[in-house]
Amino acid sequence: PFGTGKTTTLVEVVRRRVLLGDRVLVCAPSNAAVDNLAAALLSADPSIAIARAGIPERVDPRIQGVTLEALQMKQPGADMVKKLYKEASEAFRKGEKW
Description:
Radius of gyration: 18 Å
Oligomer: single chain
Strand content: under 5%
Distance between the termini: 61 Å
Number of helices: 4
Helix content: 55-70%
Structural class: mainly alpha
């Protein structure tokens, strides 16, 4: 039910497990529930490492920065990989014409 403290409780459980050195996987029956929990975790502890899987266009804007795609683009060499992928795709399309 709404307002019973489920998110608050989960945030505290996840934070304590992470402090103990555990890795935690959180799943929920809806994207909104996952986004709410992720936003609450970031609000409670901005230093906590979160990776949100899902279609970036459907992820709550509050947590866009922790999607797998956003985290991938922060890695060294990401710009080069993006450029090479674009060049390879263009070459492939040109090859299909012949």
